[in-house]
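FORM 7B: Structural annotation worksheet

SECTION A. Query
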Amino acid sequence: MTKNRTLIIAEAGVNHSGSLETALALVDAAADAGADIVKFQTFNASSLAGRSARKADYQQRTTDASESQLTMLQRLELPQPAHHTLIAHAKTRGIAFLSTPFDHQSLEFLLSLKLPRIKIGSGDLTNAPLLHAVAKAGATLILSTGMATLGEVEEALGVLAHGYSGSSDAPGVAAFRAAWRDPGARQHLAGKVSLLHCTTEYPCPSVDVNLAAMAAMRAAFGLPVGYSDHTDGFEISLAAVALGADIIEKHLTLDRDAEGPDHAASLEPDDFTRMVAAIRNIEGAIGDGIKTPKDSEVRNIPVARKSVVAARPLQAGEIIGPADITAKRPGSGRSPIEYWSLVGTRTSRPYAEEEPL
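SECTION B. Predicted structure
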């Protein structure tokens, strides 16, 4: 079966550094590169992180190490009015808008915008109240699974199955597990939920990527599975597409050297454009899986293959011995697979050397 078109998400994230002008430029860059979606992050810093929350090691390396995570997030907030501006601009550029909520207030805001889908990041895979709220709202969801075990992904899907099904059972671990075991509740996930495999490190070492986990999740859950790529470069994204990824998410920045937590694990516009073009080429190259000559190679069959020909001049009535015939190009005569069936037969007429039998 021919591979479906890969959904390509340009993760602008917080690479706007709080600037609406930069955010608009990221929308343009994503559209120019050929991405299907440009994605941002929607959060209230004080709802997301407490004052004592420390920054991750990669954030310490790429931002002011002396500031708290809360202070960093306050600088990176995307105000709600900016979303309207970005959505309108994305529409003019022919690219879809997507964002990740990190708290209930932000989720409610994004739901009010009637977006085609919501993205939940890996950090909230275990945040059952947020997942349940997404499902209760009936929103189409892309769920990242970084840092998770297969069992934790199953637990999250149980939460979603309970929410989507409108179950009257009170939310809770027992109810979520029951929903996952119920085929009727679980079927609500189909057409609503896609999973993203990823490794939550920035940049991610290639040895920690584990692309084979995509197939494991696809087999376990029967849902579309993609890949959120935090590695340097984009060759791992290409490998993911070749392995059947339905979605590719990759960070986009205007300047990898800019100060901020995600720039170093992002692609600049030229590289993002090359990645998109390469993905589209790979999609075409995967094909339909039917092993048969393609139109472009049919004309080369007689040129590249061989025919059975006389190895020396043969007289009419001669009995053909093993050394009397051989295989040579062109391949417009008898196939060499008939070599043994010709040995021991008698020629019906004379043959010149190299004449096809």
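SECTION C. Observations
The first helix runs from residue 20 to 33. Residues 128 and 159 are 6 Å apart (CA to CA).

SECTION D. Sign-off
Analyst initials: ____
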